[in-house]
Amino acid sequence: MPKRSDIQSILIIGAGPIIIGQACEFDYSGAQACKALRQEGYRVILVNSNPATIMTDPGLADATYVEPITPEFVARVIEAERPDALLPTMGGQTALNTALALFRDGTLDRFGVEMIGADADVIDKAEDRLRFREAMDKIGLKSPASVLVNNYEHALDALEVVGLPAIIRPSFTLGGTGGGIAYNREEFEEIVRGGLRASPTEEVLIEQSVLGWKEYEMEVVRDSADNCIIICSIENVDPMGIHTGDSVTVAPALTLTDKEYQILRNASIACLREIGVDTGGSNVQFAIHPETGELVVIEMNPRVSRSSALASKATGFPIAKIAAKLAVGYTLDELDNDITKVTPASFEPTIDYVVTKMPRFTFEKFKGTEPLLTTSMKSVGEAMAIGRCFQESLQKALRSMETGLSGLDEVQLPGAVDSNGNVDREAVLTALARPLPDRLLSVAQAFRYGLDVEEIYGATRIDRWFLRQVEDLVDHEERVRRDGLPSDKPGLLALKRRGFSDHRLASLAELSEDAVALRRRDVGVEPVFKRIDTCGGEFPSLTPYMYSTYEGDGQNAPDCESDPSHRKKVMILGGGPNRIGQGIEFDYCCVHAAYALKEAGFETIMVNCNPETVSTDYDTSDRLYFEPLTAEDTVEIARVEQRRGTLLGVIVQFGGQTPLKLAHALEHAGIPILGTTPDAIDRAEDRERFQALLGALDLKQPANGIAKTLDDALAAAENIGYPVLLRPSYVLGGRAMEIVHGKEELESYMSTAVKVSGKNPVLIDSYLRDATEVDVDAVSDGAEVFIAGVMEHIEEAGIHSGDSACSLPPHSLPPEVVAEIGRQTGLLAKELGVVGLMNVQFAVRQGEIFILEVNPRASRTVPFVAKATGVPIAKIAARVMAGAKLAEFDLSQSKRAHVAIKEAVFPFARFPGVDVVLGPEMKSTGEVMGLDNDFSRAFLKSQLGAGVRLPDSGRVFISVKDRDKPALAQLAGFIMDLGFEVIATRGTARFLTDQGLEVEQVLKVREGRPNVVDRMISGDIKLVINTTEDRKAIADSFPIRRTALTNAIPYYTTVAGAQAAVQAIAALKSGQLEVAPLQSYFKSSF
Predict the structure, then answer these.
(1) What SS3 string covers 239-295?
(2) What percent of the chain has pLDDT over 90?
(3) Are the beta carbons of 341 and 60 closer than 8 angstroms?
(4) Angstrom distance (rounded) from CA 789 to CA 468
(5) Cα–Cα distance between 326 and 470 in angstroms, integer?
(6) Distance between CA 61 and CA 70 in Å, rounded?
(7) Are 1002 and 1035 in contact (CB under 8 A)?
(8) Residue 218 and which of 106, 373, 477, 800 are 20 to 30 A apart at CA?
């Protein structure tokens, strides 16, 4: 069936900010959908609040609305644009829920908008837990026994039916938000109440436990002619009880018989047909009892999902692109396979390799929470690896994690070895039974301690086949430890075929990594590269999408399919798995580099291991290597590419800290680095060299010192004066940064937070109280410097720049200060010899400017600056790195005056027991952008985009530290003028009353009851302003902030944040916010 001609314009709803459960995979799917539909001649309208995405670039859609994704705002876009159709399946749960709300409130009917891909009834049938179970019953597919409830009293009745342990699954949520496993009544109450709050329909399913069962997923695509194909089967290595996003997974499923696979295949297609997904991709999840083979269906996502991104990258089948085209009428047999270019999309992909997905966690960022995995997702990203066997794929995945692993590294299991060196088997089994993030490392350690497969299976319920594979790897490790590294080709090849890295072998054999690499090259053991072809080698792949492997029998040369070209080429190193501190913003920069250099006539080569991103789409660059970002792997790729053509160099400055760490190894291997030199980067990072640089330029920085021992630190802090800001050197995302107020805190920090050494000293800075922090992004060609954006942080200095809201242009700094900041940025760029991007962080206190740090690389604010100014600075920087001059580009794009606000989004609700107070260590997972004609409206949009619903009436609670009271008095008066009542704790209330304000006093938590927390739980408080300083005050006020979080009460922990929020409330009360496409702000798209 040809494409539909009765629709001309299509609205796509994006997924919004990166959050746990909904990460950058929806940028990948949304970007594919936008490109596919525009290619077919449709006018595409996009709504998405996330500036860090490729899909919100103004060139990807015809009208791009960077607005909050709420039914109210999307309705205004519909009213302005009058689209013919709405595609709701590309933006995760956010898009589905918003589309459903627009259907239910009559907006779609009122403006004649048709839902395509999946209609409202289909979405409701799949997402409503009761309707889904009834649908599965109808086609004879079993579901776990369950009861749908909408209040806690009904939940207690349901408990009598399903018993404990019970699985709690809220309806219409993502990543298991609000759900979990209850093993006792106390946990049951806590999780059910949280789940009811998290569900937009206030419904949760109380489900019979299938803990320990095997879990599988099937990615299915259906067209309007009822052609259904399985794109990929995915098997979870972890058993049921761990969210599939947190589980190690493999594709294809490895422990199913052919008969079992066919049963799952048929069940998936039957499920799709019964739910009624008309066209597009869906994901169906199953559990199988490991002993009886009993099959139950767990859930189904009637949309492109996280697993769809994984399946797309694992097979080369572009699910989102095909789903978008199916939604406008095409059938699978009418569409071509982009990889082979000779087969139709109706061919089911077949893969002759193994893919392993490894989740990435950042529990270390959230003190006070246990790193336990449940049905509520907690990972912030993932890496994917491809190998010819599971062992190779697994070990490549482990070294892709950016956690310092080189394979199945040794770990300590609590109490495993007693003081006499004897193994306590019970202690080992107890450790294995806890579902921790590094469970596979614990399994390997258990084998080292002498436990067998059956013992480990009993504790973990990980399938015995996977356990035997790990056991075999541990056996080979032991042989290398005992006998040393083999010197013959067959011996080395046997190890490399199992995925052992040079680094891991060096550690086992007590050699240097260079010595291992030299030995294997001397005997001719080198990787070959294979292409992803979607058809198990049946047809040649014309698309260079590749992975490395070690093949051959030691005698005959293996076949390498890399086939490098004769062109001038540039290699771009990506950022690896998403994590806090290094997210989608860096992938954005890498993609822009690929686009810009392609347009300039260079061949672009992308190296990355993140399946969620646009950078690992096979059509983003000319050649794609899906490989770990380690020195060994990247050097091997560069050597292959150097066989033909000219490798001009490698871009390491765009992917964050990950590729920067490889710069010296690449230089050592004789591979050129493009742009700013590694030495210039080191000059900015190395504290002593940086001080000398600032001295030469006569620029100021806060008083500071370097400590290589505890005594050094104490002396430096005494000399500088408390409070001081401490941080390790060479980190990203403020890892282990802390503000320390006294000697005891400093001693605690030095003993627990960091491992200090001469190689990795701790940096100590004077903490500038009440200073305004400023971020600057600039591009330099070595001679000229372009100041792309000067951003004023809304939170005061001391809050990590990634967690602070910021305004572009600055909203309170005098023009002469902004001009001086620009002048100093130019001096720094020229002195460092920056060629490409540079980010500088300043602090301004009473008109005095201090330099906090300089990063001669891409920063996380680059996409925001590009969207706020209309200048594609990452593209320009990439061209400059390849030899262009700034004079060649039009650097003036804005058509009108406007204000852009970047606001951070946090995952605190996922981590029970964690304090929400902000500090110098980054904790946010993503960001949104508010864009409007003035500061207050732009800030209001940023809050709505971040999911914060500011009140327009009611009571405001204020409790602040003494230094903040004068500023709060004026703010409290403004709050009362807006019609709010103010309540405060004793000290704050007394101060405000002395200022002539009418304030109600309320008890602190430790002063008795009813206290402020009781008032919050009762719904009596609509906004919380709470600032604290020393550790005791922070601990005392923790219940206030946690209660605000769990009861969705907006809260602000800095005075500046509170002031901006009150301005936004004034804007909220003054009238309706307008919407405008990004394209209306700028002269041209990019």
Answers:
(1) CCCCCCCCCCEEECCCCCCHHHHHHHHHHHHHHHHHHCCCCEEEEEEEEECCCCCCE
(2) 73
(3) no
(4) 55
(5) 42
(6) 20
(7) no
(8) 373
The string of pLDDT tens digits covering residues 470-498 is 999 999 999 999 999 999 999 999 999 99
Mean pLDDT confidence for 1033-1044: 86
Which residues, 6+ apart, have CB-to-CB distance to 676 below 8 Å?
653, 832, 833, 834, 835, 836, 838, 856, 857
Sign, CA torsion 769/931/928/802: negative
Phi, psi of 413 (to 5 degrees): -105, 125
Q: If we measure between CA atoms, which residue out of 1020, 1073, 1078, 1075 comes closest to residue 1044?
A: 1020
> What is the β-pairing status of strands 9-13 and 43-47?
parallel
Whether residue 863 is preceded by a cis peptide bond, meaning omega within 30 degrees of 0, is: no
pLDDT value at residue 658? 92
Other CB atoms within a 10 A radius of the CB of residue 152 amount to 13
216 closest CA partner among 246, 248, 253, 265 = 253
- Return the structure tokens found at 485: 């590294």
> Which residues lie across from 637 on neighbouring strands?
none
- Cα 865–868–874 angle (5° rounding)? 35
Q: Which tokens belong to 454?
A: 């059956």
Share the mean pLDDT of the chain: 92
Torsion of CA 828, 830, 832, 834, to 10 degrees: 110
Q: CA-to-CA distance for 4 and 1010, rounded, in angstroms? A: 63
**Mean of the pLDDT values across residues 874-896?**
90
CB atoms within 10 A of CB 731: 17
pTM as predicted? 0.94
Q: What 3-state DSSP class applies to 146?
A: strand
For the segment 937-988, what is each residue's pLDDT rounded down to a tens digit? 999 999 999 999 999 999 999 999 998 999 888 999 999 999 999 999 999 9
Question: What percent of the chain shows pLDDT beyond 70?
Answer: 98
Question: When comparing pLDDT for 734 and 568, which is higher?
Answer: 568
First vs last C-alpha separation in the chain: 34
**Predicted local confidence at residue 755, as pLDDT:** 61
CA distance 446 to 424: 11
- C-alpha to C-alpha distance for 1024 and 1001, rounded to whole angstroms: 14
Q: Is the pLDDT of residue 760 over 80?
A: no
Torsion sign over Cα 143, 99, 54, 315: positive
Q: What is the DSSP letter of 619?
A: T
The number of beta carbons lying within 10 Å of the beta carbon of residue 1077 is: 20
